[in-house]
Amino acid sequence: MSDNIESDSDLAFGNPEIKKSILDGSKHYAFKEYELAAEKFSEASELHSVTFKKDNPTILFLYGRAVFQIGVSKSDVLGGNASKEDKEGSSDKAKKGSTSNADLKESNPNIQLADDVEDDDDEEEDAEEPAQDDFELAWELLDISRALFLEQVDALSADTSKNAEEIKKVQTKLAEVYDLLGEVSLESENFPQAAEDLEKSLDLKKKIYPVTSSLISEAHFKLSLAYEFCVEDPVSKDKAIHQMELAIKSVKERLKESATDDASLVKDLEARLEELKKSKAEEGKELEKQKADVLMGLIGQDASEGMKLKLASVLGEGGASAANDISSLVKKKKPKRKIEDQQPLTSETSDKPVTKKQKADNDK
């Protein structure tokens, strides 16, 4: 992920306290002291909200990114399942001095926070509310940042020729926000949402960076990962394979352009591509087996050996298409004669059936 957001000059804001909190938070983040970084960015967010009566999407992004890293570090240590106590502790610590929900709502009344609840005098019911974990808090902060950046783009788009550079600047930040939202969803195993956000991030990055940029190849790789686990989508594996191929193409073109050789990176990506293709092939075989089981069930356990052999032959010769076409197994009735082909009745034969002799006489 690039540091376009963090290095931007608007972090000064003309307020020394805000600037100091952001610089301190950035230092802690650089040393992977994510909880301390989250505290400092939280302080900066609150100071900005109080001073300017509105929230700043850049600070919210930095705050959300630090909280996300807290969750990732705990997942790594605890095998992906942080204890309830750890989650509560880290979230409370990260929220210390944070912008209150009331402040966020006041600055932007259109924002709906995930933990907004109506005031209730029943303290026991409030006490039973589950604590918000790191990934949930990170998502909420980043989603607000996304909404605010989109508002900026919409406002600037009123005069695209005049604001072209500024629009590109905001879109660069927005691409990073979508990228991190995708990562949060990957960690939370919400793969359809991850794919949606990573698609938007890639679309924006393609407008900003050349195909040889490492940010482009990285975006293709992440999107491939999200597609791979979108099991509800019947063509998700095809999408994952396509994105991995584009990631490899981007890396190869970059290496060619820079006249460098990173065979290990290309080899790793190609190995990953082969895994995806193998996985798709295995899924196809499993689907064929399921179809065969269904058809065997349709003809029943008491079917003759000849019928079973014929079914096995159909499945073996035609694969999926043959499995879907079982017309050869269905006994067809002889077609009835058309009405016009039947011998018409005459006045002489209307009361009795036509005999063979009469039919022969009529044919003469």
Write the layout of secondary structure elements.
Elements: H1 16-30, H2 34-52, H3 57-77, H4 84-95, H5 101-107, H6 123-127, H7 134-156, H8 164-187, H9 191-208, H10 214-228, H11 236-258, H12 263-299, H13 305-324, H14 356-363
Coiled coil: 266-293
GO molecular function: histone binding
Main location: nucleus
Describe what you observe in this structure.
- This protein has helices spanning 16-30, 34-52, 57-77, 84-95, 101-107, 123-127, 134-156, 164-187, 191-208, 214-228, 236-258, 263-299, 305-324, 356-363.
- It has 14 helices and no strands.
- Helix 7 (134-156) packs antiparallel against helix 8.
- The chain is globular and about 65 Å long.
- 29% of the residues are buried.
- The termini are far apart.
- Among the domains are: 11-76 and 132-190, Alpha Horseshoe (Serine Threonine Protein Phosphatase 5, Tetratricopeptide repeat); 209-288.
- It is mainly alpha-helical and 364 residues long.
- GO terms for molecular function: histone binding.
- TPR repeats lie at residues 175-208.
- InterPro entries: NASP-like, Tetratricopeptide_SHNi-TPR_dom, TPR-like_helical_dom_sf, TPR_rpt.
- Residues 266-293 form a coiled coil.
- Residues 175-211 form the Tetratricopeptide SHNi-TPR domain.
